[in-house]
């Protein structure tokens, strides 16, 4: 069996399904290019039938990316497959990923069908997709809870129909590592023709076992792993790319399996995805969390200083965390900021860099310890400047035993509008003033405030979910002033409303 593990990245499909993580096409292209530089073999670029935006993203990513295979998801439905094939027309190497549920629940309770009919639909879908592309991947949805004997029949039938890759998803994150490994082994031992296809893992993390299950699948013969950057994805997420890749690298002597990933790009890709998707990485996240290589106890610090490998099983430099990072302060120049932004995956024009540098200096005056998260937010802020509706001025009056009040000025496509309001708090007052100007019937469905790092001088990050005309819009804002961050988040969402409405 080959020692090469194909890395199939689904950050832009399964990862992007997470509420609040949606990207526009330009941002998706930026992520796709970063994934290409990282060295992933396959990029799942979207589910083209699901929306015109997804369709367009697959088209544009196909044009922008040169060598990874571009994959488009479908159900086992002819129309889905037609649309996916159309979206892949510019792909240098295109793959259609089609499939259907195979567990008892999916067959009887979701599809209202029976096992034989499901096999027929699976075979038809693969044959239909084969009319368009040579490379067809089949997924047996909820394979984790599918009876192995029946799963083997499905896998055999789709390989016979021409599937080049067969995906065995643990859709609900239910399997134990040993069970999942045995499932993959069972397929290898009981499916005739299995050597004609690559078996893939696609594990969800509902019980925190996604990576363990993936590794168990690989040990038992899977040679493609479906993963996302930072493990983002539906509910508790998908298997994280950085974990699988670094397990293969760190434990090569035991596992004997290689990936084509340029591991030095892991950290910058992680930062890019976290920033663009507004999804903070938990501090203790393996490989890419801010504490992943931080030693705080005296005994550990002493041990690492004596010999790095006393407490470190990986070299942070191998994942692109440069230990000799230049500390950014108010005295840092443009070159230091540019260097840091490049490490984090941002390639900016001179004008954009100048813009961010201005903001950086303002922030450095307020906050002595500038971290990557702060820089990422500044880079995000530069994007925000392109908004049609911008916050021009904000003043709030708040405290104990007074009625909070706000004065707001918005710049709407170059014209200035003022409003004042009171509220039950400064955020309420400011948002009410904004609503007076924009005159839309909106309701705030979610309002989440987070400090990015630590300390009372920290940047506060706000996520707002707004309902308008039966649709939900997500907005994000970040500022050392929490009221400003809230108004920015509100406006970020409002700027996503269709312009005609
Ligand atoms: O989790 C899953 O089963 C999926 C399939 C659509 C591949 O994401
Ligand atoms: Zn999934």
What would you say about this model in short?
The chain has 501 residues and is an alpha/beta fold. 39% of the residues lie in helices and 19% in strands.
Structure characterization notes:
This protein is of the alpha/beta class and 501 residues long. It has 3 domains: 271 residues, TIM Barrel; 73 residues, no CATH class; 108 residues, Double Stranded RNA Binding Domain (2-Layer Sandwich), CATH 3.30.160. Helix content is 39%, strand content 19%. It has an 8-stranded parallel barrel with strand order 1-2-3-4-5-6-7-8, surrounded by 8 helices. A hairpin with a 2-residue loop joins β10 and β11. The longest helix is centred in the last third of the chain and has 17 residues. The N and C termini lie far apart (58 Å). The model has no long low-confidence stretch (mean pLDDT 91). Bound molecules: 3-methyl-2-oxobutanoic acid and zinc ion.
CATH topology name of the largest domain: TIM Barrel
- Please work out how many helical segments DSSP would assign: 17
Instruction: Give the DSSP E fraction (strand runs of 2 or more residues).
Output: 15-25%
The side-by-side strand order for the widest beta sheet comes to 1-2-3-4-5-6-7-8
| Class computed from helices, strands and strand pairing | alpha/beta
Oligomer status: single chain
How many distinct domains?
3
CATH class of the largest domain: Alpha Beta
Average pLDDT reading: 91
